[in-house]
Design brief:
The protein has helices at about 60-70, 75-90, 145-150, 175-185, 195-210, 215-225, and strands at about 15-35, 35-50, 95-110, 115-130, 130-145, 160-170, 190, 230-240, 250-255. It has about 260 residues and is of the alpha+beta class. It has one domain (about 15-255): Urate Oxidase, CATH 3.10.270.10. Strands 1, 2, 3, 4, 5, 6, 7, 8 and 9 form a nine-stranded antiparallel β-sheet that branches. A hairpin with a 3-residue loop joins strand 4 (about 115-130) and strand 5 (about 130-145). Helix 1 (about 60-70) packs antiparallel against helix 2 (about 75-90).
Length: about 260
């Protein structure tokens, strides 16, 4: 018995939908790891296409079918191919994919050399209209110490945990670890998953010797990204979860895309 295809029926309201698809798919993926070659992780994936005005709906199951064909590896290298498959299989003019996943790097404490895994959150945004547009983003926790607090206080200075989000467009492949390194070197101190007492002394004093406003953080990162000819566009945002204020401090910089 042939079942009726409701989604392919005509819709007479003549209103196109910009994005229609599936969200919050939890899916195991394999990503490239600079030290260990590959890393297994679990991603949260959103997939959309545009829907022409004459179709009533899209075929949601086809998104999962496409995803399953790439289950052995989803990465920046084949994301354009996946987006093209989405356009072809769903008869659409544009396709969009959003991927977020935890990425782990083994970090060594600065003094004790104790090793543990540090978690970072990575993002990949892909769009294919007439051509592919790919953006990679990374969230990095850092420590900042307030220059004003240090200057006006007889002793001590307030510091806080900060969250930096950097997103980039690029010409060729780059390592996630290299972007993380750029961000962490622009902090009062980088963060570690495991610290012994000598390590705590080290990072506390390092932050005190390197005070930075939230504005300093985004400017320092932007300065380093401007030096990298592989980066064609970026956005940098930093949020300080203030330790003595009932609000966060925030700064944002965007480099205009190359024409």
């Amino acid at each position: 018995m042939k079942l009726k295809d409701i989604q392919s029926q005509q819709d007479h309201r003549k209103i196109e939908i910009n994005k229609v698809g599936v969200k919050s798919i939890r899916y195991p993926i394999i990503v490239l790891d600079k030290k260990n070659k590959i890393q297994h992780t679990v991603a949260t994936i959103n997939m959309y296409v545009n829907l022409p005005h004459h179709f009533k709906g899209t075929h949601m199951s086809r998104f999962i079918e496409i995803l399953n064909t790439y289950r052995k590896g989803i990465n920046v290298g084949n994301l354009s191919e996946i987006l093209v498959k989405m356009k072809e299989k769903l008869h659409s003019e544009s396709a969009h994919m959003e991927i977020a996943f935890p990425y782990f790097i083994e970090k060594q404490a600065p003094v004790s050399k104790a090793k543990s895994l540090m978690e970072y959150t990575c993002h990949i945004w892909g769009t294919h209209d007439k051509r592919a547009d790919l953006i990679v983003g990374i969230e990095v926790p850092i420590t900042t110490l307030c220059p004003c607090s240090k200057e006006i206080s007889n002793y001590g200075a307030h510091n806080q945990k900060s969250k930096v989000m950097v997103s980039v467009r690029f010409k060729k492949f780059f390592w996630i670890e290299d972007l993380i390194h750029i961000i962490e070197t622009c902090a009062s101190s980088e963060m570690y998953p495991l610290l012994k007492r000598p390590d705590e002394k080290y990072v506390t004093e390092k932050a005190y010797d390197n005070p930075m406003f939230v504005e300093d953080v985004v400017r320092s990162i932007a300065e380093k990204l401007d030096e990298d000819s592989n980066i064609t566009w970026y956005s940098v945002e930093s949020e300080n979860m203030e330790s003595i204020h009932d609000h966060s401090a925030y700064a944002f910089i965007e480099k205009k895309p190359m024409m």
